[in-house]
Amino acid sequence: MEQLTRPVFEALDALAIKYEHYEHPAVFNSEDAEVHWRPIGGTPVKNLFLRNKKGDRHYLVILGIDTRADLKQLVKIIGDDRFSFGSAERLMNTLGLTPGSVSPFGLLHEGSRDVQVIIDEDLRGAERLLFHPNINTATVTISFADLERFLATRGNRVRYIRIA
After folding, report:
1. Mean pLDDT by 10-residue block, N- to C-terminus, for the chain (164 residues)?
2. How many C-beta neighbours within 10 Å does residue 97 have?
3. Contact 85/141 with Cβ under 8 angstroms?
4. Using CA atoms, how far apart are residues 6 and 45, in angstroms rounded to an integer?
5. Positive/negative CA dihedral, 74, 76, 78, 81
6. Whole-angstrom Cα distance, residue 49 to residue 60?
7. What is the pLDDT of residue 37?
8. Cα separation of 147 and 95, whole Å?
């Protein structure tokens, strides 16, 4: 576990980003995560790793855990062709992550430089956001402002859209 989380904590520490770290059993979907996130407090999110039809563009979509992502509508808003979820192999090559562990901290991976980040506008006011630190047996909380600070260091294109 430390091999996956160490770069996350080092990056947050280097930016003087305050965070809280929680450990829990492995979770693989938002329903599983919600059981462990409820006592933490904050805004739980889900992170979707998507690719376009040709597979030459990748997206990390960050939205509230209760927000339904209509991929057909999302593709119209973003202005690309058809979206599908990236395969486990593509996820590993691009973000260095396994299914169930997708988070913006995957942008620390060297293969992530061309990933576009799409954030639901509704998250802007969140005091604390809950993310996996690149492993699905832990959760990290950071502020929305600190998420933006982290993303600014990565160099990825970031867009804010209204998803719901």
Report:
1. 86 98 89 84 94 96 92 92 96 96 96 97 94 95 97 97 85
2. 23
3. no
4. 22
5. positive
6. 5
7. 86
8. 17
Q: How far apart are CA 119 and CA 121, in angstroms?
A: 6
Tokens, residue 87? 């395969």
Token readout for 106 is 């995957």
What is the rounded radius of gyration, in angstroms, for the C-alpha atoms of the chain? Answer: 15
CA–CA separation, 47 vs 30, rounded Å?
A: 10
Of 134, 122, 128, the residue nearest 147 (C-alpha): 128
Instruction: Please state whether beta strands 43-52 and 129-131 pair in parallel, antiparallel, or not at all (unpaired).
Output: parallel
Distance separating alpha carbons of residues 135 and 69, to the nearest angstrom:
23
C-alpha distances in Å from residue 3, one per residue of 6, 87, 96: 6, 22, 12
- Distance in angstroms (rounded) separating the CA atoms of residues 77 and 120: 12
> Which amino acid, 142?
I
- Confidence (pLDDT) at 35: 84
Distance CA 146, CA 88 (A): 28
Q: How far apart are CA 28 and CA 160, in angstroms?
A: 26
pTM over 0.90: yes
**Structure token digits, residue 149:** 């600070």
For the beta carbon of residue 38, count every other beta carbon within 10 angstroms: 9
